[in-house]
Amino acid sequence: MLRIKADTLTPVTLSVNGRKHRAAIEPRMLLSDFLRQECGLTGTHVGCEHGVCGACTVLVDGVAVRSCLMLAVAMADAEITTIEGLTKHPAFPAVYRAFTEHHALQCGFCTPGIVVSAMAEMTGQTGKEEALEEDINNLLSGHLCRCTGYLGIKAALRDVAHITSPHEESGT
Predict the structure, then answer these.
(1) What pLDDT digit, counting tens, does each position of 52-89 carry?
(2) Topology match between the domains 6-82 and 92-165
(3) Is 139 helix (H, G, I), strand (E, B) or coil?
(4) pTM here?
(5) How many CB atoms lie within 10 A of CB 24?
(6) Dist. CA 160–CA 120, nearest whole Å
(7) DSSP state for residue 36 in the 8-state scheme
């Protein structure tokens, strides 16, 4: 078993979902690992560990980021919001309902990351009355889902954004 000397650990305090979390960690610990191991927040999933799959998406100061690409020690001055923190957001019930009604999840592995990105998009749409289909495609371009084929996810995101797809408008 690998033993880490106490003098190689760095004390860090991170603000996660409005609470302070203190720990002594290795300087190379990823934010995704900090959230899961030190905070016990397992809704942030770790998939590819290369920032490609989007499963580890969290909000850092309101911006959706891949937590597997961020060092925890670099987040000391940031406000981090995970899927667990977003469940308290007033818009979350509508997102949950849309994902359920449109069968937008199957195994659920990618779902937290997609919901976090959707919530970031919803709360960051200042001056924009409705999302465009292109916005949904751009949002989903950073997420890999192996179960749903994205149709239910897109329908849920359209529902949440109160838009209809061009196919629905033309009746095809």
Answers:
(1) 899 999 999 999 999 999 999 999 989 999 999 999 99
(2) no
(3) helix
(4) 0.83
(5) 12
(6) 13
(7) I
What whole-number distance in Å separates Cα of residue 24 and Cα of residue 68?
Answer: 19
What are the C-alpha distances in Å from 143 to residues 47, 55, 63, 84? 11, 7, 16, 19
In the CATH scheme, what architecture does the domain 6-82 have? Roll (3.10)
Q: Decide: 37 and 78 in contact? Cβ < 8 Å.
A: no
Cβ-defined contacts of 132-140 (< 8 Å, 24+): 132/163, 133/158, 133/163, 133/165, 133/166, 135/161, 136/161, 139/114, 140/114
Q: Write down how long the chain is.
A: 172
Query: What architecture is domain 92-165?
Result: Orthogonal Bundle (1.10)
H or E element: which one contains 13?
strand 10-16
Give 34's DSSP letter.
I
pLDDT band at residue 45 using 50, 70 and 90 as cut-offs: very high
- Alpha carbon distances (Å) from 127 to 37, 110, 122: 39, 29, 11
Domain ranges of the chain: 6-82, 92-165
Measure the CA–CA gap between 27 and 116, rounded to whole angstroms. Answer: 26
pLDDT over 90 (residue 23)? yes
Between the alpha carbon of residue 71 and those of residues 67, 85, 146, 149, the distances in Å are 8, 20, 27, 32
The secondary structure element, H or E, covering residue 12 is strand 10-16
